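Re-running Metal-dependent hydrolase to confirm reproducibility after the cluster update. Everything else is unchanged from the original entry.
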Amino acid sequence: MWPWEHLAFGYLLYSAWTHVAWRRSPRGAEALVLALATQFPDLVDKPLSWGLGLFPQGYAIGHSVLFAVPAAAVVAAVALRHDRPDVGVAFAAGYVSHLAADVLSPALKGQGLGFERVLWPFVTFEGYESDVGFAGRFTLYVGRYLHEVTQPEYLPFLLLYLGMLLAVVGLWVLDGAPGIRSLLGVLRSRSPDV
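Result of re-run:
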């Protein structure tokens, strides 16, 4: 899945959770932590595989439930210690949503569920046919994606896909666009005084 797909899926689940469990929309810090957590497994595994060659594929320690559960527990404990359990829940939700999406996504292509993607080190993948480095691997995937979405037979799927992404953006806007003010505050606090 692409980063924006992980983000949309994670936000949809987390927004539903906050509305049902806490009767409110997600808040700024939660939304930022959620956004980071939905990318976390790829931020760990892709550089370790594509850039450093430590793993044969981009599904390894960051995607492993054996790493995800303790990592989410540690973040939740730290968040609780700082009296921000909502942030800990947001991290866990984002991380778990990424893993769930990676398990579910092969089924969308008729390939069944991809549980093997989250079972490292018990399941490992064969290495790539060629070692093209991080930039090369990224360029390869983007090129393949752009080729697919520009094919005429792909148009109905593309329209449905864009509609679903826009629906999640609409939900985020209805929730008050959480995270924007927090992000702007962080950026302002880090900019040098002129």
